[in-house]
Amino acid sequence: MPYHKILIYADASPQAYHAARAGLDLAAALGAEAAFVCVLDEALAIGNIDAGQTHPEAEALLLARGEELLDQLAALASPGLPLTRFLPWGSPAEQVLATVEAWPADLLVVGTQGRHGLLGLLLGGAAEHLMERAHCPVLVVPLR
């Protein structure tokens, strides 16, 4: 199966940086387009009135952090690599899956800490969730 559009899920974790490098290298090697999706989680944008932070201020801070992350990851790309950025608001898993469909990606690249068993269950399983629900192949890149 040829890969022409590779979508890379980006967050601020070390495993996401590792996955970004792998996805960008693969896109460059295949002559494919690459895109990053960094989801701005609405649950984190409620603000904190006690600390003097309003909802709009919290949203602006999240947006700025998302744009900064995408700038850092884009700097890892080879010169001339076609690169698209997505910064949707919402639930991370749902927005990644929506971006896979809307762009439409041939391959989704996600990072993982490689945890499994009870610890993996307790920490959630974003990579596993995306593997089960994505309508394209998913490349899971372990941190180790």
From TrEMBL:
Recorded hits in InterPro entries, A to Z, give: Rossmann-like_a/b/a_fold, Universal_stress_UspA, UspA
Lineage, top-rank taxon, reads: Bacteria
UspA domain ranges (all copies): 3-142
Q: Give start-end ranges for the coiled-coil region(s).
A: none
Q: State the similarity comment.
A: Belongs to the universal stress protein A family.
**How is this protein named in the record?**
Universal stress protein
Query: What organism is this sequence from?
Result: Hymenobacter humi
Q: Taxonomic classification, please?
A: Bacteria, Pseudomonadati, Bacteroidota, Cytophagia, Cytophagales
